[in-house]
From TrEMBL:
The keyword Transmembrane does not apply. The lineage of its organism: Bacteria, Pseudomonadati, Pseudomonadota, Betaproteobacteria, Burkholderiales. In the C-terminal section; belongs to the class-I pyridoxal-phosphate-dependent aminotransferase family. Keywords: DNA-binding, Pyridoxal phosphate, Transcription, Transcription regulation. InterPro entries: Aminotransferase_I/II_large (IPR004839), HTH_trans_reg/aminotransferase (IPR051446), PyrdxlP-dep_Trfase (IPR015424), PyrdxlP-dep_Trfase_major (IPR015421), PyrdxlP-dep_Trfase_small (IPR015422), Tscrpt_reg_HTH_GntR (IPR000524), WH-like_DNA-bd_sf (IPR036388), WH_DNA-bd_sf (IPR036390). This is GntR family transcriptional regulator.
Amino acid sequence: MQHEKPSLSATLANNLARQITEGVLRAGDKLPSIREYAEANGCSKNTVISAFDTLTANGLIEPRRGAGFFVASVTKTPQQDEDAPTLDRAMDSVWLMREQLQSKPDFLNLGEGFPPVAWLEETRLDHFHQRVVRTGVASLFRYGSRFGYLPLRQHLQQKLAGYEIEAAPQQIVLTHGANQAMDMVVRYFVRAGDTVIVDDPGYYALFGKLKLSGANIVGVPRGVDGPDIAALEERLKTHRPRLFFTQSVGHNPTATDISAAKAHRILQLAEAHDLIVVENDALADLKPRSATRICALDQLRRTIYVGSFSKSVSAALRVGFLACDADLASDLADVKMLTHVSSSEYCERTLDAIVSDGHFLRHTNRLQERLKRATATGVEALTRLNATIFKLSEQSLYLWARLPGRDDSIAFAKEMLEKHVILAPGTIFSAHANSVSPWFRFNVAYLGDPRFEKALGL
C-alpha cells in the first residue's frame, strides 16, 4: 500500500518545524509574512495559512496582532541557554558560520574560511572612499540599479573574458556576495520537495539555504579531480533534478580542481537531462586563470557562474555577482529586487575603484604567492602529524585532511575547543548531516601556528 504524499501545507509546516527545533529559527524570530512566504514557495496564501495554523496549534509559532507571526517562546533547557558554553552548541553549518563571524583573539581558528586580514589590508579600502564620494555622492542616498552598478559589470565582463567566459553586462547581476547569488538561484528554481544535486562534501552554507527552501538534497561524491561522474549520472536518472551546485576551482572544502574531461562529461549529462549547473567560483582570485571552468566550456548556456571578492578584497564589502543567459539574468535581477530591492551601489562603486586600479592585479599576484608559501607550510605541518591529505595542492586556501586515530571529527572538534582551537569538522560539509566523518578542512594560513601541535600534546 502506497503512502499518500503529504500536502504542500504539511510540507511547509514540517520544514518550518524542523528549522525551529534545529535552532535555525529561534524564539522571538519573526517569520516572513503570509504573502511573502507564499511568493517564495510558489503557492497560495491559503496553503501558507494552513501551515501556520498547524504550527500555531503545536505551540511552535504565535500570532501577534498587527505584527505577524513569531517563533514561540519555549522553556529553555540547559542546551538552549544562550549563555551556554560554545561546546554545548550543535556542530552544524549555523554553528560554523557563527564562529567565523566572531573575533576571538585568544583562539586559533584553523577552520577559518577567509585569508588572514593582514593579507587583505594592503587593498587599503580607506583610500577609495573619497574617490567614490567625489564621483557618485548620490549613490550614498538612493537605491541602485536592479542589475547593479554598470561600470563594475563592465569590468566583470573583462574579468570573465580572462577565464574565456563571454558575458555581456546585461548577463551579469551584482549581489551581496556569492551567498546572495546562490540564494537568488534557489529562490527562483527550487520549490519545497524539489531535488537538488550538490558536491559531497561541499559548501555548508549552501546546504543551509536548500534546507530552508524545503529541498531534497542529494550529494555526489567529490573525487580528487571533480565529481564522481558515474554517481552523478545515476542521481540524474533517479531524481531528475533541475540544478547541480558545484565548485570547479579550489573546491571548498577538498581543495580539488576539476579535470577538463570531467567538465566536458558534466555538460554532456546536463544537455541530456535538462540540468542547469551552478558553478561557484568564490576563490577565483586565489587560483590561476588557466584552471578549467565548466562555464568557459558551456558559455553560460546551461550554466550559471557565481563569483565573489570576499576572499581577495573584503568580506565586509559584500559584493558578489552571477553571470548567466540574459533572459535568466533579468529574471534573477527581479528576484533580487523583490527580496532586497537592490545591492549597495556605494559598495559596488568602491569595488569598481579598487579593481580599476593597477594595484589590484599586483595585489592578487601577491595573494597567490603568499598562498603558495602557506600551502607548502600547511602540507609540512600535516605531514609531521602523520595526517592523510585528500589532495596535495601547490596553491589552495584549504587542505582536506584526516588525523590518525581521530575518526569522529565532531568529537575531536569539541575536544579542541576546550583548548582554544577551532576546527571545521568534516560532518558539517556533508550533504547528510547525520553522517560521521574523520575529515577536517584546514585553513593553510594558520597551520604553521605552533598552538595546534601544543593543543595536540606534541
